[in-house]
Amino acid sequence: MSVTYQQLVETTAFIRTRIHTEATIGIILGSGLGNLATEIKTEIAIPYSEIPHFPVSTVEGHGGNLIYGELNGVKVWVMQGRFHYYEGYTAQQVAYPVRALHMLGVKTVLLSNAAGGVNPNFQVGDLMIIKDHISLFTSNPLLGKNEEKLGTRFPDMSEPYSKILIKKVEAIAAAHQIKLHQGVYLGVTGPTFETRAEYKLIRAVGGDAVGMSTVQESIAAIHCGMDVFAISVITDLGIREEENTITHEEVLQAAKDAEPKLTLLFKELVKNL
Ligand code: HPA
To answer: Which domains does the chain carry?
Structure first.
């Protein structure tokens, strides 16, 4: 079922009763990358379960929070925990919080995720700025009746990720000696990690990294005119010829290890917007 504008109005009316100032930046934290939330001077943390029309969590005790507060002196919204297509949500539900952020006045979204590297130059722990994506292998959040008040029926996707934001992050990384790649993120449904043949296919069609999130959020954000910046932490390498097993624990650990770099980039970026 399509998301209706009325639902979004109700969601944001509820959230607005809890805050009295505005933020124009929204941040979505990926798997193993939730620690940035501890750097925030939190004014309010609203459990997703309390927010009207927000997707209902499938994992007990891991409902997530919508946080409002200050990061490096700048007001931000942070989604601590996101919704994934593999959990059984529709693509529209996965993207719902991004649309809610838009309704709350957010103009720029910063997305992070853990991803598998398929570019042979990548190492575990590297960061990859997403300069483009391939989302043809998973469902599109804009399927169904278009909500014209949000955006056009057929959005242009020629430059999904803001070149200006990419430049800013590159400058911050250079100033702090943080190694960065740029590449194409290919979105899959999960929850299986890929077979060797699938990792090879992803590489062959132009992917540098593969993951189970982000593309639906990016599409919804672009649809409603937001600027998007997205970055992957490379948590495993899909194209190793030798031992190639990948576990969720390995992904979480690698994300956690790389997280300080990501936190620094986001903290500096919000001050620079
Ligand atoms: N494949 C898909 N999603 C992922 C991976 C991967 O190798 N690593 C982290 N998320």
So the answer is: 3-271 (3.40.50.1580)
